[in-house]
Design brief:
Elements lengths: L1 H147 L3 H49 L10 E5 L4 H7 L4 H10 L2 E3 L6 E5 L3 H17 L4 H30 L6 H9 L4 E2 L2 E2 H18 L4 H10 L14 H11 L5 H9 L9 H15 L5 H19 L4 E7 L4 E6 L6 H18 L7 E6 L9
Parallel strand pairs: 7-8
Antiparallel strand pairs: 1-3, 2-3, 4-5, 6-7
Helix pairs in contact: 2-8, 4-6, 5-6, 6-7, 8-9, 8-12, 9-11, 9-12, 10-11, 11-12
Amino acid sequence: MEIVWGLVGSAIGLIAGVAICFVWLRRVENQNHLNAEARSKEIISQAERNSENILKESELKAKDEFFKRREELNRDLEQSRNQQRDQERRLDKKEGLLEQQNEILLKKEKNNQHTEKKLHERKEHLDKKIQDTEKLAEDQARKLHDITGMSRDEAEKTLLDRLGHELADEVASRIQKHEEAIKLVSEEKARRIIATSIHRYAADHTADTTVSTVDIPSDDMKGRIIGREGRNIRTFEKATGVDVIVDDTPGVVIVSAFDNVRREIARISLGKLIQDGRIHPSRIEEVVKETAEEMDRNIIEIGKAAVMEANVGHLHEKLVHLLGRLKFRTSYSQNVLNHSLEVAYLTGMLADEIGLDGRLARRCGLLHDIGKAADHEMEGGHPKIGAELAKRYGETSKEVLHAIIGHHDDVTVDHIYTVLVAAADAISAARPGARRETLEKYVKRLEELEALAQGFPGVEHAFAIQAGRELRVIANAHTLSDSEALKTCREIAKSIEQQLNYPGEIKVTVVRETRSVEFAR
């Protein structure tokens, strides 16, 4: 029983403890709920304050943006109004101009109507006069027939026979005058075309030589080049076909040959041997062989460059090789390849000036001296050799072949391109500096021009310019008057015609100038 009561007491205590705990937990929960409500109210209040601040800032930004947009719109509207006002002013101005033009056109129309009316009246008057004249002419002709007793055909025949006899001499003289005028005009045009072509092309090369010098580091190298009992120099001369001159000139060895290809091979080979230092017969033959192969490739490249520079189209490889050989060939000390390129350019320019095919003309000029690349290997002159080689290697153009064989007047000239090539060839060969023999004559001619002008009284200085085509004379203004300067100019020109030989014409200009100088202080 006690046990039961003990169990009941324990249960009652347990229930009381549970009830107490429940009551405590309930109080804690109520307290937390009150705290949460207070905190939530505080958060809501803070959020409301923040939202009010954000709303105010947004309103301020919106107002600023509104004002900015309104200012931009006002500016755009103002700009549009200005543009519209400008356009209206331009339209008003155009309208005024159109009204003025309309008034002018109305006036012109009235004038035209008035003029047309006058012309119509004048035409009627002229028609009436023509009718009267025709009637009078018929009356006169009828009276003449009655007087002479001849018909119209007989009178015409008699009159024409008489006029034919009277005008025969006049016609002959007129024909002669026209022929002379045509000749003068043709010569003048030819001079102008040649002068224009020369002015358009200017070459910068001068005369070449037939010897080359090779620098050596010391005079001891001369002995090594000669070799024991001269075997090295003999081997070198035999392998290259040149003459090697070893004299007392310090620091150089001279290589001489008329075949410039061999001379260039020898010069390069000797330079390689000197640089290598191994100079003996077998090494000499090896270096000369290598250099000859290099030179052959170099010649082809030179020929290709010349063909491209002249712009003449495709050429046979052998003709290209022959052109490259011309780089090492001289004629009267003038480099033949440079001369051929110059002739090609001049011929092309001359052809362009008179309306011919400039490319065909350049081809004729480039190949005109091709025979000089082989004239030491074949018999005959270089025009004939060149024509044979060009024909052998595929050149089919009759103009080119005729220009090659006929540019020295060896055959009858049948093509205009041959004449152009001959003219360009003469220009290239005769220009100052091209050939050593003509340089002294050129300088002498300029000196003679200047000396002749300075021999006249009142002339202070005389200058030959434009390669001798113009003489500029400075006259003393205190000695000669304007009329005397004009007379002196004419006398100088006459003296040049009488005393000097010169190509083309020479322009004489006499300059007389007076200057007065004062200083304002």
